[in-house]
Every structure is written in structure tokens, then in C-alpha cells.
Design goal:
The chain is mainly alpha-helical. It has a domain of about 160 residues. The chain contains 8 helices and no strands. Helix 6 packs antiparallel against helix 8 and helix 7 runs antiparallel to helix 8.
């Protein structure tokens, strides 16, 4: 009995698995590596993005003019979505002032052109933030089923081997079947971190884009009127038409 128990386990299951069983295990291991790599890389990138965003917003609201902000961006480069949006909005305003509506993409008033540019920039940032999330979602949703398939295949092979040997006692059946359930556990171990990581990254991205929406309205108001809109006071007649114009579709 002790000898039988000692021969049952993960290593024994792998040794007895056929090519398909080993392939399923390799797929699950690969999915786990990919999901953890994405979570770590995007987590570090998100932390750095948050630091750069806080630094830029602090500098922006304490700057003496937009020229100072422009010089800061030119000196240190674009390192966060807020500086990215500010740089393109300023460039769009200057471009329309100097060249007007030379192309269909520049048609309309200066304010409309700036709004379109800011929407485009925000869509680019949103798409960049979402890179890799589809992979995480796919891993989180499919890994349990891949593991379950490995379990079904393992149980099938175990029952075939037991039937061929003619030993159908409980101790001969329970061991191989229990080993096959390892694949389901591996599938869940791969899926759970992927789902948690996906939800965490989506939540972080939504918070960032919400802050970027608010900043975009304030930036647009400042670019078009030279004044900032405050929720604690009534907006001026010039500011009111542009507040809340920047919203992602």
C-alpha cells in the first residue's frame, strides 16, 4: 500500500502522460508565463505612468504660462498621457492659427480642430493602455477549460490502462483519477491570477482615463478662453460652450 501511494503524484502523472497530456501541460505553463509577464510589465509601466503624471500635473498647475509648460515638455519629452495630450493640443492650436483649415481634417473653427485632435490623442492613449488586456482576458477564460480537458484526457487514459490490466479495485482507480485532477488545478492556478490582473489593470486604466477626461476639459477651456473653469463658480460666457466637449466615444 505504501509503495502504491509513493508512486502516485505529479511526477508520476507526468511520466505516465502521453504526448497530448504533456502538450496541454506545456500550453498551461506557457499561458501562465505570458500572463505573469503582462501583469508585471504593465504593472510597472502603470506605476511609472502614475509617477510621471503626478509630476507633470503638479508642474502644469504651478506653471506661470503655457509657454513654460511647452518648454518643459520639449526639455523632458512626453512621459505620460497628460503631457501627451497637452503637447498635441498646443500644437493643434498653433497649427490652426498659422495655417488655418488647409485640409479636410482641419476644417471648422480652431476650437473644433483642437477638440478633434484631443479626442484622437485620447483614443490613442486608451488603445495603448488596453494592449495585452485581451490576452489576459483570454487566458483567464480559457485556462480552466484547457485544464479540464487535460483532466478528462488523463482520466480516459487511466481507465483504459486499468481496463487493460484487469485490476479494477478502488485503490487502482482512485490514484490515476486523482492524478488526472491535477490538470484542472493547474488550469485554475493559471486562470485566477490572469483574471485578477485583468480586473486590476482595467480598473487602473478607467481611473486614469477619467482623470484625463477631466483634465482635457480644463485644458480645452484654458486654451480657448485663457481662463480655467471651476466647479465652485459659474463659468464665463466664453467658457460654457466648451466645457464637457471632450468625451471619449
Amino acid at each position: 500500500m505504501e509503495s502504491t501511494v509513493s508512486n502516485i503524484g505529479f511526477s508520476h502523472f507526468i511520466a505516465q502522460s502521453d504526448f497530448l497530456g504533456k502538450t496541454i501541460l506545456a500550453i498551461l505553463i506557457g499561458m501562465s508565463i505570458v500572463s505573469w509577464t503582462l501583469i508585471i510589465i504593465k504593472g510597472i509601466a502603470g506605476w511609472r505612468r502614475k509617477q510621471y503624471s503626478n509630476q507633470f500635473l503638479h508642474f502644469f498647475w504651478n506653471a506661470s504660462s503655457l509657454d513654460t509648460v511647452r518648454h518643459e515638455i520639449q526639455t523632458h519629452g512626453i512621459r505620460c498621457p497628460f503631457s501627451h495630450l497637452t503637447s498635441h493640443a498646443q500644437h493643434a492650436q498653433e497649427h490652426h492659427v498659422h495655417y488655418g483649415a488647409a485640409k479636410l481634417s482641419e476644417a471648422g473653427t480652431q476650437q473644433e480642430f483642437v477638440i478633434r485632435t484631443m479626442r484622437m490623442v485620447m483614443d490613442e492613449d486608451a488603445a495603448r493602455l488596453e494592449n495585452g488586456l485581451t490576452v489576459l482576458a483570454t487566458i483567464g477564460s480559457t485556462a480552466p477549460f484547457i485544464g479540464l480537458f487535460g483532466t478528462v484526457w488523463g482520466i480516459y487514459n487511466a481507465l483504459i490502462n486499468i481496463s487493460a490490466s484487469g485490476a479494477g479495485t478502488l485503490d487502482k482507480v482512485a490514484g490515476p483519477v486523482g492524478e488526472a485532477l491535477i490538470m484542472t488545478g493547474i488550469g485554475l492556478a493559471v486562470a485566477i491570477p490572469a483574471v485578477i490582473g485583468y480586473n486590476w489593470l482595467v480598473r487602473s486604466n478607467n481611473v486614469l482615463m477619467s482623470k484625463l477626461d477631466t483634465f482635457a476639459n480644463e485644458l480645452l477651456t484654458f486654451l480657448t478662453t485663457g481662463k480655467l473653469y471651476s466647479i465652485n463658480s459659474e463659468p464665463t460666457d466664453m467658457a460654457s460652450p466648451v466645457v464637457h466637449n471632450i468625451k471619449r466615444g
